[in-house]
Design brief:
By secondary structure, the chain is an alpha+beta fold. Helix content is about 40%, strand content about 10%. It is built from eleven helices and seven strands. Strands 3-5-6 form a three-stranded antiparallel beta sheet.
Amino acid sequence: MDHSNVIRLLDVVDNDKALHLVLEYMDVDLKKFMASSPDIAKNQQVIKSLMHQLLDGLAYCHSQKILHRDLKPQNLLIDCKSILKLADFGSAREIGVPLHRYTEGEMVASLWYMAPELLLGSRKYSTPVDIWSAGCVFAEMVIQQPLFTGYTELTQVIKIFSIMGKPNEETWPGVTLICDFLDAFVRNEPQNLAELVLGLEPAGVDLLSKMLCMNPEGRITASEALEHPYFDDILESP
């Protein structure tokens, strides 16, 4: 892949015992950036710039039929010029046509950034899983801590439901076919995201809500997100 917001592979070295990938140098990952430069990381224009770059790289990956499947702050690298690049494609895979049913044991995404369809047991999924993860990263940049913090798949589902609301056939057609134990969860109504991501402008809250749509079919795409009004001042700047 060749994109300004995707890490470049410079060389591959095979010494018979191991395969070494030589990648371009980046200064820090997003997790360390937020921890070491909290004042800068909280700047709304910085967040907006980094999110635009994240989505730009993600839109490119999806256009190349590639799912990243492990988007999280540790896998987003930043250089001294504040250029962000998607990295660590160890869990990535090509999107099948038609979509393949992936094995239950496949490791996809770190728990706090994992899309609800994966947590509920869906073995057929596509680009919306990356959009959900990107939305989690977006929220984390604003509030400087992860939005959904479960410690098992079950507690992660409960955490998501407590904030985004428990889905049903009306809000997510087909969800009961994915998860036949949905009735076991307590019914929760969605919370107001604006109250959870304080400081984020209304357009940003709207974009975040579209990225964290529970129904993957209703989730915004990376290309659509790039055209969202939240980024208007970036797109209009010289």
